[in-house]
Amino acid sequence: MTEFSTLGLSSSLLKAITAAGYTTPTPIQQAAIPHVLAGNDLMGLAQTGTGKTAAFGLPLVERLLAHPAAAAPRATRALILAPTRELVNQIAQNLVTFVKGSPLQVTTIMGGVSMGPQIKRMARGCDILVATPGRLIDLIERNALRLDMVEYLVLDEADQMLDLGFIHALRRIATLIPKKRQTLLFSATMPKQIEDLSRSYLNDPIRVEVAPAGRTADKVTQCVHFLSQAEKIDKLIACLSERPEDLSLVFARTKHGADKVVRKLVAAGLKANAIHGNKSQNQRDRAIKELKTGETRILVATDVAARGIDIPGVSHVYNFDLPDVPESYVHRIGRTARAGADGDAIAFCAPDEITQLRDIEKLTGIRIPVASGEAPPEGRNAAPRPARGRQGQSQGQSQGQRQGQGRNGQSRNGPSRNTPSHGDDRRSGEATAKPARSQSHGRGQQPAGAKPAARSGQGPRKPQVGGPAQLAAEVQARGQRDGARRNG
């Protein structure tokens, strides 16, 4: 069994993580830490709950301690970008544990809270800055922050940052950072636009994979109930009432929908809270705290909660509404079955969501077992198929915003475990490391198997110049960028 002591970390850092309860490195940590310590750029593909923060955070702290330098005013030596406030806080909390007893300073910058204290903290400078892209740009424009001293850049949950419309902010940030730097990119999925982004940001990167793109956690039992939209709330109340002691996450597509579900649950005698983009940071923090302490057992959320919140013990994830972007389903159910535990993912599918369900099954490579009801005939009552690729995701995001979603408002019943298709017999969590441009060289890990083929037909057909479709797309894109700037 591999130990942290064999990965090249110093005794002082080993002492800090041992005191924090870290015992055995996860596969992503085993595969990534040696490469980061060696100074290589790295592209990591891993699902949520696999220990990615320590995979980049531990070697990052090690390298900063090995080459000490005084923090410069308004500057940082290491910049970590994350898509949501919750994820920024989670990363920072882990980093504070890692730097305990050292002179390194960790600072956070994110939307949803007052900018004044953030400007004041950055006036002193820091060693590690964890930020959302939108708020980072705000501080740069106010001359409260400079990036010319960044030595290390980390993009965490890169696919989610693209989904939320941060691509333009990321490109601008890249122009302000020295070209001579070490860059690490982590993503739960690896669509074509992430591959393109990696070529722009990374230099000859090592590629580390813990699970193939789109693969769901092996310990998650999935099932789907076919029912009408009107029947969903009664089915949800019945499921939750059968397991009052279980910790459950319920995902709705819109902010209004999440609040409506909470009202129905409370009326049925079930205590529940909601988190979404319209909730203040204090409201969101309080809802998550109540779930962690057991004061409530049910949290209803839009997709903002699919990333960045770490709630141990979540046993059930309910997809009250299926997401328009199939990758979001993978992120949602990744909230359960963490740290080796089992979990259940229950999907409710109305007749107009059958297309979304089939897209999810195509991405994950499994046929989700049916727990009740009967699927409608293919092609009848199906919702319009979401366009794939970056353009399709942007359109889906803009549609969600029109429904009241906003930038941060992402919207044990099953009979069997996941059965991966396409001949993939890898065990869950096995990692491989290889140069991004070449075949696996192993490094003591089991071979990763074949990569999934790129999807064809990405993106919608290009509209005619000057036509209404192009005008609508421009309006949607502009609204998405403005929303990202306000909430980042």
Automatic annotation (TrEMBL):
InterPro entries: DEAD/DEAH_box_helicase_dom, DEAD/DEAH_RhlB, DEAD_box_RNA_helicase, Helicase_ATP-bd, Helicase_C-like, P-loop_NTPase, RNA_helicase_DEAD_Q_motif. It comes from Pannonibacter tanglangensis. Residues 368-488 are annotated as: Disordered. GO terms for cellular component: cytosol. This is DEAD-box ATP-dependent RNA helicase RhpA. Keywords: ATP-binding, Cytoplasm, Helicase, Hydrolase, Nucleotide-binding. SUPFAM superfamilies: P-loop containing nucleoside triphosphate hydrolases (SSF52540). Residues 2-30 form the DEAD-box RNA helicase Q domain. Pfam families: DEAD, Helicase_C. It comes from the Bacteria. Residues 232-383 form the Helicase C-terminal domain.
